[in-house]
Amino acid sequence: MSYYNEERQPTRLVRRKVRKRKRRPFRRLLRLMLVLLVFLMLGGVAYAGYLAYKVKTTADDSYKGLANGNKSDLRMDKVAMGKDPVNILLMGVESYKGSPGHTDALMVLTVNPDTKKVAITSIPRDSRTYLPVIGRKSKITHAYAYGKKGHKEEATIDAVENFLDVPIDYYVRTNFQGFKEVVNSVGGIDVNVPFDFDQKNLKGKKLYFHKGKMHLNGDEALTYVQMRKQDKRGDFGRQDRQRQAMEAVAHKALSIKSISRADNLLQSVGSNVQTNISLKELFGMRNFYSSIQNKKLEQIKIGGQDEYINGQYFFEPDPATVQKASERIKEILDYKGKGAASSNSNGDSSELGQDSN
């Protein structure tokens, strides 16, 4: 009996030791996984903090207030995005070396957070209208060029307010490079091309577009929205393509889940976009946008006819459609008006620079 116990005891000890040795690799692996998990959690927190910092930096870099203190002269009181109905002027500016710049795209986004109504009004770039900055009629696209350095946005805002007799509360201005970079940063956009056409990009390379669904990168998207001469509907067709591209960019930007893409988007915005919308006001619109993102934007159009004055092309807006557009915007805003906008003048037309496309 003694022999049996003496023989068995060491065997048990050996087995215990073996078991302990078998457990150690598992414990090491468990510890390693816990360390990696903590590291990843800390890394995620650090990157979240980095993105928050980038968002604030981007907002600070892009922010530029207006000389009037961000309150339209057509308002009795200042309004706040996310709380009050507002108008936002979207400006797409083309500016070449030696050029004072022109607004190639002008759209007024009307937003009412109470009624959840959203509308977009496209203004043909060649619309002949009174420009307060020069005191006479010319193309509305030239208001930006005539504006003083550092106040070109105000010159365009004044022209649009005079044209539609509605307040412009906020503006967002971007350039061609900014549009291209933003599209690339969201991984390109999907559009429904209305017909086959080809168009040269800014570098003179011919790009081809085919009827139906196409995925476009930044350069292709910019070329797509710039084309005008091959469209039978002229500037109206281009306005529809601009709206289409803008909605596609917004949809992609708000559905970004990739951290690297979010970072790229912030970099693109920071260096190419300018606005008087503060970060606080922008965040105030998040819940509202979530509630209307699947709704189709109401499109308000301005009719008119082509005219040539002293050999220069103009789009002469139809006063009835301008009045109708103004009334609809005011209805969505629940805006009663504050006096009248600057009185129109029948001054001489003038040309500033060469138009593209």
**Helical coverage, percent range:** 40-55%
The general outline is globular
Low-confidence stretches: 1-21, 339-347, 349-357
Tell me the series of helices and strands, N- to C-terminal. HEEEEEHHEHEEEEHHHEHHEEEH
Secondary-structure content class: alpha+beta
Number of strands: 14
Task: Report the span from N to C terminus.
Answer: 107 Å
Major pleated sheet: 6 strands, mixed
What Rg, in angstroms, do the CA atoms define? 29 Å
Spatial strand arrangement across the major sheet: 11-6-1-2-3-12
Report the total helices.
10
Mean pLDDT: 78
Strand content: 15-25%
Observed structural traits:
357 residues, alpha+beta, six-stranded mixed β-sheet, two-stranded antiparallel ribbon, 10 helices, disordered N terminus, disordered C terminus
Describe this structure in words.
Helix 1 (2-62) packs parallel to helix 7. This protein is α+β, with helices and mostly antiparallel strands. Residues 1-21, 339-347 and 349-357 have low confidence and may be disordered. It is built from ten helices and 14 strands.
Provide a quick synopsis of the model.
By secondary structure, this protein is an alpha+beta fold. It has 10 helices and 14 strands. The chain is globular and about 90 Å long.
Helix-strand blueprint:
Elements: H1 2-62, E1 86-94, E2 102-112, E3 117-122, E4 128-131, E5 136-139, H2 143-146, H3 152-164, E6 170-175, H4 176-185, E7 189-193, E8 197-200, E9 206-209, E10 212-216, H5 218-226, H6 235-254, H7 259-272, E11 273-275, H8 279-283, H9 286-292, E12 298-300, E13 304-309, E14 312-317, H10 319-333
Parallel strand pairs: 1-6, 3-12
Antiparallel strand pairs: 1-2, 2-3, 4-5, 6-11, 7-10, 8-9, 13-14
Helix pairs in contact: 1-7, 4-5, 4-7, 5-6
